[in-house]
Amino acid sequence: MRVMAVDEVALSLGLAPGMMLADARARVPEVQAVTHDPEADARLLDSIAEECDRYTPSVAVDSPDGLILDITGCAHLWGDEAGLVSALVTRLVDGGMTVRVALAETPDKARALARHGGELLRAGRRLSPNRLNEARTPYVPAPLSVHDLPVVALGLGEERTTALKRAGLTLLGDLANRPRVPLAARFGPEAVTKLARVLGEEDVRITPRRTPPALSFPRRFAEPVARTDFVLATLADLVREAGEELARRGAGGRDFVSTLFRSDGAIHTLRIGTGQPTRDVDLVLRLFRERIDTLDDPLDPGFGYDLIRLDIPVAEALGVTQTDLDGNTAPTREVALLADRLGVRLGQARVRRFAAGDSHIPECAGFTVPAHAPVLPLTAHRAAGDPPMRPLRLFEPPQIVDVIAEVPDGPPRRFRWRRQTHDVITFEGPERIAAEWWKRKDGGGLTRDYFRVEDSQGRRFWLFRHGLYGTEKPNPDWYLHGLFG
Amino acid sequence: MSSEIEQSVNMIDSYPPLARLKRQIDALGPAASSGRWGLLSFGLEALDARLDGGLAKGAVHEVLPASGLDAASAAAFALMLAARAGAEGGPILWVSTDAELRRQGIPYGPGLAELGLAPDRIMLVTAPDELACLKVASDSIGCAGLAAAVIETGTAKRLDLTASRRLALAAEKSGVTALVLRNSDSMIASAAASRWQVAAAPSVPLAGQAPGRTGLSLSLVRHRGGARPFDMCVEWDHDRTAFSEPALLRPVPAIVERRSMVA
Predict the structure, then answer these.
(1) Between A335, A393, A457, which is nearest B143 by CB?
(2) 3-state class (DSSP) for residue B129
(3) For testing the chain A interface, which of B88, B97, B102, B108 should be mutated: the one with the most A CBs within 10 Å?
(4) In Å, how far is A242's CA from the nearest CA of chain B?
């Protein structure tokens, strides 16, 4: 077992990541070891990323322990860039985190400065919560130059970093002024690309964990608000504001996300969706209220919310709709509203419609999808005058039945389903449906022989034999796949 | 006990002076519910005639399977009525519960299409339990944009007189025809305008002994408008989206009157 990470105390006692746990115990017998849980680490990082959402919508996770925030256009909300960094550091350190922060014009440069500036070159500082709480002086990152960073900051892997060091190039400053072509020839083109990025000559956009919303309406409070009705009133204000902005743009939203940031770091997200783009304030508010009413755990303001934000992830074009002369909305619109309301109450996956699939396997040829999803419309292939060839209801998965057939590869004569025996009076089949062998790796799959049968009472069933007798399976099973009306 | 009530209702119908009085009262009533939203015709004259033109639109109708195995036929009958109620192509809502879909099977789009009901008209809502199902039903029946609503409640333990009255009032207000599918004849009193018991009927086989068009054996158990209970075998014409008389090979009495109680 190896040590994955150590805390500050352990580090000062000479323990380091990478050593054997037994060695560490030998050196410091009272060491406390906890099993490494990368998923929990990822969850923590994700929750911190969520928290950083209040500074900028564009946050990227730099696994396993870093975050990159693109604060372009956000800094003015905090006075200036230094103000934002100070607020961010204060919040994280107050939350018990140990952080290293760097501010730079490109993400790679900031990353290199934060990760390798470290103690060695006095880039970014480790702050103890207590010290910060006592002082409360705004944190200003020390100005430092990327030229002073070790070549490790390029992130080229051990082999090439050693090669760089052997060549006497220990700092990025040594590399910066050299001609790039020989560098590329000796250390690979990747080294030059990374160098350009870390030096800030080349800018690469970060990939945020969430696409920044098209529209965002934040409301900050100097004092956290703890009363639910005030929260709702604020939400109503924001929705109204959003409605006006959307009307000005001639747009509407399908998704509305309200994020409530609690002062102790907890975050509540309320999300509603509509089938068609809308900017109807009353409708959105009604859906939000419905959403709050159906929450499993009601909103708990606790110490109060200090930021409430309404995001509209995507704005779509929406013209002005006209009501008819009586002032009524069209019936289709009414049904769409009903679908939205039910979707918010029961969850969107519970309001469904029928879609066709490009397949001849029955359960893939027709299925249901959430009402909002775009679908391939279904069409009937029945010739006029024929009875239905496909059942009204399908069992998913098909139900196994005991079948008696005269010959093993013949039609069913009698079958037993749900403890009742049915005699087959009339039947049609087999309708042979082969497995999709072109999609399967083994090129196989069992053929199904479908039979439409009617029993002595007139009940109609859809049975199939799974596998061809003899060639595919010695003793194929029978299944009931559906019921006709 | 409720069958006794039913019998006494039948008794009123068959006693001429009482029946006449009832008709007069109906005529005095403020716009009989059948008049306001029109009637839902079966497309089969023999059947419509028994119901004075058809079933009332904007009302609740109950459909029960004659036995557990006839549930698919009962569902089909409800859907056929819904298809006819929304003949103009209006949307149809199908509310069901998770338990019912597991037990009876999930609705299958291609099968619906072949029944003559365009699947893109149907919105399927699956409620987690019966109570949620009824809530969804009472909300959606009030939505006048719908042509019909099929409500599959399973045992319908919670669909008591109050609940069904609520559904009936909502339907009357909006004009939506609501079809309640309950799977047990638990004889719960309800405010439904009619109650049907449906069983599968042997179809007329096609050439080569293949099962033919969907055959149903309907029996009207109760009707608020005063129509007498009757049994009838019908066939569903998938192409016309209408009921038709089965093209029987052998003569069978098409309509069997229930013997009334009164001498």
Answers:
(1) A335
(2) coil
(3) B108
(4) 28
The one-character DSSP state at B243 is E
Tell me how many residue pairs between chain A and chain B have CB atoms under 8 A apart.
Answer: 209
B105 vs A483: CB contact, 8 Å cut-off? yes
Q: Which of B 8-37 lie inside 8 A of A, CB atoms? A: none
A257 HSE (CA, 13 A, CB side): 18
**Residues A378, B140: C-beta atoms closer than 8 Å:** no
Distance separating alpha carbons of residues A240 and A234, to the nearest angstrom: 10
* B198 touches B215 (CB < 8 A): no
d(CA A112, CA A62): 12
The packing angle between helices A38-52 and A81-94, to 10°, is: 140
pLDDT tens, B101-128?
A: 999 999 999 999 888 888 888 999 999 9
What is residue B225's predicted lDDT score, i.e. its pLDDT? 83
Within chain B, which residues score under 70 in pLDDT? 1-14, 22-35, 87-88, 185-187, 248-263
Instruction: Compute the Cα dihedral for A212, A218, A223, A228 and give only its sign.
Output: negative
At A178, the amino acid letter reads R
CA of B252 to nearest chain A CA: how many angstroms apart? Answer: 16
Query: Is the confidence metric ipTM above 0.85 for this complex?
Result: no
Averaged pLDDT, groups of 10, chain A, 485 residues long: 82 85 89 88 88 86 86 83 81 76 85 69 36 49 75 83 85 83 84 85 81 84 85 90 89 88 84 82 87 78 86 80 53 79 86 87 87 74 79 92 89 92 91 87 85 92 91 90 91
Q: Tokens standing for A476?
A: 């194929």
Angle CA B50–B55–B58, to nearest 5:
165
Residue among A384, A396, A483 minimizing CB distance to B239:
A384
